Amino acid sequence: MLSRVRSILIIDDEDDIREVAALSLEAVAGWTVFTASSGKEGILSASELQPDAIVMDVMMPGMDGPTTFKNMQQTPAIAHIPVILLTAKVQGVDQRRFADLGVAAVLFKPFDPLLLSHQIAAALGWPE
Amino acid sequence: MPTRPESAVAPDASAKTKALLADLWRRNRPVIEARLATLELAAAADPLPSQLRAEALDAAHKLSGSLGMFGFEEGTAIARQIEELLDAAEPDRALLASLGKQLRDTLLPSA
Predict the structure, then answer these.
(1) Is B7 part of the contact surface with chain A (CB cutoff 8 Å)?
(2) Do A113 and B17 touch (CB under 8 A)?
(3) ipTM over 0.90
């Protein structure tokens, strides 16, 4: 049986991160990618588009990733969507703090564009 | 832009992704230049104003989180050192200047 095309919402305030993530997930995995540049926009997009998963930056101006995630958890229409946090923080204490939020996974920036889809699939238990 | 080792990705997808990345790196050059300039401005400032320090810290953080995507792993390591330096109570400005130059030479060797 062919696996269906996945859809991913990337939420990051940095244009280059959004562009690289989108082009890698589209070109390498053939997934459908949506993007948003802020937590607020991300919540609206997730509600409307109902992606299979959300990949979101931790540090964003305004509403940061952890706060956006908490808001998503309180929004019934999108609370079920798995969220992966992306962080450039390398300290173990930060990593544990993010993992303790209840997100599906924490991935690290910079990511390898050729491996990002594999990392996401592995974190979410998606067959490849 | 540095070349990446081959991975398990299908060759056509890998080549397409690399070409798109190279194009994005070229288009992204003004952003990289601006971030390097912010770091250099901070290294030259005496004293270092808190606003400029925050801007430089943000620039270093963004560089450390993005350069490796384009194959500049060494650039990410240098940017991370700069980020830690700017986060310290008393940043060593001479070291900041030296790392800033090292980062520029790594990213834009012909500039």
Answers:
(1) yes
(2) yes
(3) no
